[in-house]
Amino acid sequence: MRIFIATLGCPKNVVDSENMAAQLALAHHDIVEDPRRADVIIVNTCGFIEPARRESLDVLRELTRGKRRRQRVIAAGCLAQRWGTRLFQEAPAVDALLGTRRWDEITRLVDVLSSRTSPGEPLAWLDGSLDMEKMPAPGRPFAGPSAYLKIADGCSASCSFCSIPLIKGPARSRPMEHIVAEARELVEAGARELILIAQDITSYGADLGMEDALPDLIERILRAVPELDWLRLMYAYPQRISPRLIEVMAAHPQVCHYLDIPLQHGHPEVLRRMRRPHDLDKVMAQIEALRAAMPDIALRTSLIVGFPGETETEFQALLEFVDAISFDWVGAFIFSPEEGTPAAEMPGQVPAEVKQARYAQLMERQQAISLRRNQEQVGRVLDMLVEGVGDGISVGRTYRDAPEIDGLILVEGEAGVGDLLPVRVTSASEYDLWGEWVAQETRRR
After folding, report:
1. Assign residue 309 a region: left if phi > 0, alpha if psi is -120 to 50, beta otherwise?
2. CA 218, CA 221: separation in Å to the nearest integer?
3. Which residues contact 146 (CB under 8 A, 6 or more apart)?
4. Distance CA 228, CA 162 (A)
């Protein structure tokens, strides 16, 4: 069978799609890049917030518009899990649903659908639980010189605004030896950067009875793949950034001096309503500890504006918080009331026009900070991981930039994709850097 996979949403969805592709390839199915050639179309959907749900529905409707008689369409992932059979009403040409806790059964579902001579009753494979012992499928494909490495799935936090526990279930950590083995496989396949991801990487191992296990996992990965160039950490819960984690990050040159810490707000009362850590003095102390251990660390956070009850005073406190910490990167989101979450029913819902105005204010404030942080890089020599070339320009990232969400660095002259090259930064904008090659030996693998 020829299979086309469309992936929407976050890097965790990317990993799930890559694992589905690997399982299907092991079963001798062909993964194709043109949905018109496919016998089965899989859309790995996102259902986290309303804009993501709209995008998922648009893609499903577009891909089913010209559906052939024997072609089958599977809606997989978060929106399928969140909406269940309601999704059949919104996208009636879909043949089957595959939830987030059963994507490892994709090959069996494809076999069931392909055995049908007519569409039949739509299938909904939603209930179940992923077997963390069976992740991942061998030979997981990845694009470019970087690969995401999922260390856990689900979330056990009780944030009042978030639907992830409803979609993914409680946190479930993968066995450490399996993660290390996958890291070895990915590096042997050509990955120069591994990016550890989960809903919260700092809670890794808690469900297995381990305490502060992330630093041990990092050291085991680095012992297994000492040739790895970069190891990046994403999605660290603020209250679980331990002194040992900071120590391990600072001690190993392969660990990027970069951390994504989704803080969500900068006023303690809003954070209490969010059911998030609200001790901002402790947050500031952690930031100071990170910067003391790694003065060149790049910090990213996520912030929500317009949370129910957010007053003008609380919003101004958020702006002051952003000024005080001076994050390199901020992902800002307008509050979206998610069905089934406590925040959706809270009083004091903020009008849409107010939320939009606050979002614009926050982004304007952060752009000035990001510009200043980028301008501080001018004159530095940084390693650049080349991701693309064309028209006489090489494009890539430094340790300060995570794929797709942060900035880029551009240099005149075409290098090889996957090369790691020293570059002197010559100029900067709010998002991107420009540089020139430094006469040193290119590091290729």
Report:
1. left
2. 5
3. 191, 192, 193, 194, 195, 385, 387, 403
4. 34
Quick check: 137 and 26 in contact, CB under 8 A? yes
Closest to 15 measured CA to CA, from 127, 103, 113: 103
Query: 155 and 171 in contact (C-beta within 8 Å)?
Result: yes
The phi-psi region of residue 84 (left if phi > 0; otherwise alpha if psi is between -120 and 50; otherwise beta) is left
What's at 72, amino acid-wise?
R
Q: Is the dihedral of CA 178, 146, 422, 369 positive or negative?
A: negative
CA–CA gap between residue 30 and residue 304 (Å, rounded): 41
203: its two tokens: 């809670």
Strands 72-77 and 329-334: unpaired
- For residues 431 and 407, what is the distance between their CA atoms, to the nearest angstrom? 5
Q: In 264-385, which ranges are continuous DSSP H helix? A: 268-274, 280-293, 312-325, 352-375
322 HSE (CA, 13 A, CB side): 31
CA distance 259 to 232: 8
Beta strand pairing call for 409-412 and 393-397: antiparallel
Say whether pTM exceeds 0.85: yes
| DSSP character string of 169-221 | -S-EEPPHHHHHHHHHHHHHTT-SEEEEESS-GGGTTGGGT-SS-HHHHHHHH
Give me the chain's average pLDDT, please: 93
Burial class of residue 65 (count of CB atoms within 10 Å of its CB; 0-12, 13-18, 19+): exposed
- Please give the domain boundaries of the chain with CATH numbers for all domains: 2-125 (3.40.50.12160), 135-375 (3.80.30.20), 381-437 (2.40.50.140)
The mean-pLDDT minimum among 111-115, 275-279, 368-372, 440-444 falls in 440-444
Axis-axis angle for helices 106-114, 11-26 (nearest 10):
60
Encode pLDDT of 38-85 as tens digits.
999 999 999 888 889 999 999 999 999 888 888 999 999 999 999 999
Task: Answer whether the bond into residue 277 is a cis peptide, omega within 30°.
Answer: no
User: Do the Cβ atoms of 330 and 301 come closer than 8 Å?
Assistant: yes
CA–CA distance, 85 with 87 (Å, rounded to integer) = 5
What are the b/e assignments for 108-126, b being 16+ CB within 10 Å?
A: ebbebbeeeeebeebbbbb
